[in-house]
Amino acid sequence: MDIDNWKEIPGGDAFEDVTDLFDQAASDMAQGDVILSDGFTLMEAMGAFEIGEPRMDSGVILDTNRRLPFDPLTPLLPEEVCWILDRSFACEMEWHSGSTLSQTVYTLLYVHHMTTIDPDFLLQVPLNDGSERPIGLVTIVLRAAVMAMLKCCDLSWRELSKGRVFDTEDWQGEKCDVSLLEGVPAEYIIQKLDAACSWLHSLNIRSDQRDAIIDRLLLRKSLLELFRLDLQHARDRLRPSLVIARHGLHKVLQYAPPQPLEDSLAIRAVDPYITRRLPNFLPMRVVTLPSQDNVWKCLEQLLDGWSEVDSLLQSSTLSAWELTGSIRNWSPPHSLPPPYIRSLIQTCFFDHNLIAYQFPATWISERFWLESLGISWEKVSNILRAGLVDAQSSVHEVERSVGKLVLQDVRSYWFNPPRRRRYLMNSLLDHLIVFDLLQQLTRRCPFEDPEQQAIANAIPYVLLLRQLRTVLDIIFSGFHQDLYAHDERPIAYWHVVQVIEIYVDIVEEVKPVIPKDSPAYAELEFAQTYHDALEKICGALCSLTMSDIRQPKDRISVNYRKRYKWLYTKSFPSNEEVTIIPIPGIDHFFSDSEQCISASRLPFHSLRIVNISDIQDPLFVIQELTNAKNMLLQLTRVDVERFWAPKQTRDQIEFIQVTVQSCEALATALQSSVDASAETHAVSNSDDQDRKHLGRKLRWVPVTHPWLPGLAQDTT
Q: What is the mean pLDDT of residues 103-114?
């Protein structure tokens, strides 16, 4: 090993190469053999690895992983450069999906040789020598593209590091002491991209190859423009930049470079084992980059995320943000927006970009009351002030508390699903505190006018409705994240029915207060019908899954207490444990289920939905699913222009159509299974067994629907 004498090395520089000595000593050992001294077993060896540096074994290079030396100045063919540019997008998109920089972006070896391929240091080398492999393709074209990729990662890293999304949960921020060109202005890199495009026009290569490389450079330029866009001062440039980027992606898709040969330098330019040479504190794992088709799909998803940001910034309603977040939250896990987009949306809503520069500071509270009750915040505050000694401070407390609560709720829609579930559990107590505050204020305000008294009574219910929707989101998220065991699912569906019963009762109390010609009234009617349909669906599924409960009551009670501990809190000053939401607990579930089973020999179903005497036909579940489907179909035909956020409501209707399809598919599968069972079993003995058999065939697949099951097909 050659060591420069001017470098100061700890311990001096009198080193002797002992590689041959170790090779000779290990010549008789097979791959995987371990030499253990007396008293030093494999357990002690593994303990040393665990306690010490996690990369202690990173120096082991298997023969299958040995690679030829990489020379960054080796000339490349135009199609090889085009292929490397495509794989640079693959590295970047894989980093956005949650892998580390060392596993993705840094595997492109040109990242580590930016100085070597700098044309300013190669003054004696002709950049265009007329050959089919001009060195300028590397030093001018490829270097500009790699610089732009690193700068895109730098700008993304700055947004992701704001704390809106969570490092090591949503993304990986470890830079491994490799520069992302933090100190290089984006404008300088854009000039390099333009210069590379101009140089390519002077190159004597095939026109289709030249156009393909230029298209990729222009696509990279458009992405860099998007990443560096300041939405606070240049929001109007977002949409034109998106149009340019989509056009660039469309042109790139028209040409796919051929796969380089195995001995090509282009193949060696991507080294997945580069992590062994980097200061990395995470366990190393080789990541297989996605196929190029998937890369372009991921890039299109990133552009769709920017389009969603643009749509939200153009909206002036709170409902637009909440509906968009809710729909994205229930999307399949693999279709969630990239962490960068989720962070950017939170920044736009949480930071000064939206609140202080586009709307007044009271915008959230004003929109919340207007869109919930159809009544202005001014009118609500006047009602709260009536009869209060210190009315001004109380009203300000309501405004501050509601604004903070809604602000955090909207932000949470763009957390990752487990993180949002934890947030919702913790937020229930905050909802309860604001609800109690509003109740105390409205109780002190008696009115002779019945209309004003009705509004005063309805004001706290708005917070209670929001709290109940939060409870439903928590329960449904258990299905979405596959958290429930078999015997927990019927209890979860039963809980949904109980919560919706309370929700529907409160809606009936609030509706008379809301002006019937307002969007708030139309949205509340829409929500009421939607929850009525959910009540039927969940009641039917509770009945269908009851046969999955096989644990004794004591065990179920313990599991219930652990699963639903977020429903309970300490009551002060008595310090007694009470439920945050006044819904029945596990004892009521046992009581109701035993009554139903003893009365009809069928599993429990909500008494509110149907009488016990009606549960005599095994086709009852199918009928309930059909009725719910018809109710949801009515919602798909409503006039969304009456609502606060018509565009987002259309997206919600698309999700309702997915629910309709799930109900229809489940009802059809159940009907077929019942018909098949009727042909092979005696009618007198088959009903209960068929119901148990159907319940055990249910499969919850979040990709199909976040909380509704499908029916598995028989494999026999």
A: 95
Closest CA to 691 of 623, 622, 618: 618
Find how far residue 230's CA is from the centre of its chain. Answer: 24
Residue at 596: amino acid letter:
C
Please state, in angstroms and rounded to a whole number, the distance separating the CA atoms of residues 594 and 521.
Answer: 40
Say what the pLDDT of residue 384 is: 83
Tokens of 515: 């002006």
The residues spanned by each domain of the chain are: 78-308, 317-483
pTM for the model: 0.85
Q: Which two tokens stand for residue 681?
A: 């079993």
Q: Collect all residues with Cβ–Cβ distance below 8 Å to 234 and sequence separation of at least 6.
A: none
**pLDDT > 70 in the chain, percent:** 82
User: 698 near 711, Cβ under 8 Å?
Assistant: yes
Number of Cβ within 10 Å of residue 106's Cβ equals 24
How many angstroms separate the CA atoms of 321 and 412, rounded? 11
* HEC letters along 644-663: CCHHHHHHHHHHHHHHHHHH
pLDDT, one tens digit per residue, over 612-648 is 233 335 578 888 999 999 999 999 999 999 999 999 9
CA 196 to chain centre: 37
- What is the rounded distance in angstroms from the CA atom of residue 338 to the CA atom of residue 93? 9
User: Is the backbone peptide bond immediately before 573 cis, with ω within 30 degrees of 0?
Assistant: yes
Are 707 and 480 a contacting pair, CB within 8 Å?
yes
Residue 4 class from Cβ within 10 Å (0-12 exposed, 13-18 middle, 19+ buried)? exposed
Tokens matching residue 448: 């002779």
**146-188 pLDDT, tens digit each:** 999 999 999 999 999 999 999 989 999 999 999 999 999 999 9
Phi/psi of residue 637, nearest 5 degrees: -110, 10
Q: 53 Cβ partners below 8 Å, 6+ apart?
A: none
Spatial separation of the C-alpha atoms in residues 295 and 298, rounded to whole Å: 5
What secondary structure, in 3-state letters, does 346-399 show? HHHHHCCCCCCCCCCCCHHHHHHHHHHHCCCHHHHHHHHHCCCCCHHHHHHHHH
Backbone angles phi, psi at 373, to 5 degrees: -115, -10
- Cα 214 versus chain centre, distance: 34
User: pLDDT by residue (tens digit) across 326-350?
Assistant: 998 887 766 789 999 999 999 988 7
The whole-angstrom distance between residue 649's C-alpha and the CA centroid of its chain comes to 20
